[in-house]
Amino acid sequence: MTSAKPFHVEPIDATFGAVITGLKLTHMDEPAFAALYRAWLEYALLVFPGQNLTNDEQIAVARRFGDLEFDLMELSNVKEDGSVRTSDDDDMLKVLKGNMGWHCDSTYMPVQAKGAVFTAHVLPSHGGQTGWADARAGYQELDGATREKIAGLSAYHSLYYSQKKFGKIKEKDSEYVGYGLNGQEPPLRPLVKIHPETKQPAIAVGRHAYGIPGLEEDESEKLLQDLVDITCQAPRVYHHDWTVGDAVIWDNRCLMHRSGTWDMSEPRVMFHSRIAGDPESEFAAPN
After folding, report:
1. 195 exposure class (CB count in 10 Å sphere: 0-12, 13-18, 19+)
2. 50: buried, middle or exposed (CB in 10 Å: 19+, 13-18, 0-12)?
3. Using CB atoms within 10 A of its CB, is residue 80 exposed (0-12), middle (13-18) or buried (19+)?
4. pLDDT score at 184
5. Which of 162, 159, 122, 167 minimizes the C-alpha distance to 264?
6. How far is residue 133 from each of residues 45, 107, 231, 249, measured CA to CA in Å?
7. Which of 138, 210, 266, 269 could form a disulfide with 121 if both were Cys (CB 3.0 to 4.6 A apart)?
8. How confident is the model over 219-278, as pLDDT tens digits?
9. Is residue 283 within 8 Å of 111, Cβ to Cβ?
10. Which positions ≥6 away from 101 have C-beta within 8 Å?
11. Residues near 7 by beta carbon (within 8 Å), at least 6 away in sequence
12. Considering the entire predicted model, what is its pTM?
């Protein structure tokens, strides 16, 4: 479809998301960026084929969306010497496997991330897609009784909790930088999040969430998994088949995401820039 915007918008066949063409992310004037930001709020996920951003360009693009939680992180199964990681005890592989579960970024930190810019640099021959799920549409899918039940409930969020399923990260001499594993107390976040800009409600769960106060452990785990299952199915999901040079920008305040599986004997190198959340809307205390 042709848009009046200074770029072309092709909605994805899902409840969210659009492919953006006719725009070079490194050459946006202010009116073009303002239109792009509005599209981002509307679609939550924007896919930009063939941008081929350098690392510095990626950081600069991310900064236009706000302050950064961190500039750039390589998500890769490739070592500095070019060899592929193979050890089951490799902390980076544990984290990559953990990222294959549905989640939102930095819910385990005091301030949840606003969004992210993600780019593809080296890809396996098959697999390795990235999936996103529309937590706004997931909330709209809930029946009235479930909405009423979760309206006053919260859950703790912890990377320590979620990573236990994939092997404990070593405390010393680990190649993983320790982000999210710095001894912080788990924040307590409501199961329903109101987007600070669009005011739309969304389910706020994912692999880092656990331990709903007031519920038995089994009941808490079942409810959290049920909410993920409701959200993460068609037409509320999109899995992107990457091409080297693609860039995506997503709104972490209303989408969950996950990495797809691939033959991890093959290299996959992605770069992630994380946009910091506004402390006024994204902060959550431990209790």
Report:
1. middle
2. exposed
3. exposed
4. 81
5. 122
6. 10, 16, 7, 14
7. 269
8. 999 999 999 999 999 999 999 999 999 999 999 999 999 999 999 999 999 999 999 999
9. yes
10. 162, 206, 207, 258
11. 20, 21, 22, 23, 32, 35, 36
12. 0.95
Please give the CATH superfamily to which domain 8-278 belongs: Clavaminate synthase-like (3.60.130.10)
Contacts of 26 (CB under 8 A, 6+ apart): 51, 53, 57, 60, 61
Assigned token pair, 274: 């994380």
Six-digit token pair at 171?
């405390």
Lowest pLDDT segment from 101-110, 147-156, 167-176, 200-209: 167-176
CB 197 within 8 A of CB 37: no
- The sign of the CA dihedral 222, 223, 224, 225 is positive
- pLDDT, tens digit (0-9, with 9 covering 90-100), for 39-87: 999 999 999 999 999 999 999 999 999 999 999 999 999 999 999 999 8
Residue 202 near residue 124, CB atoms below 8 Å: no
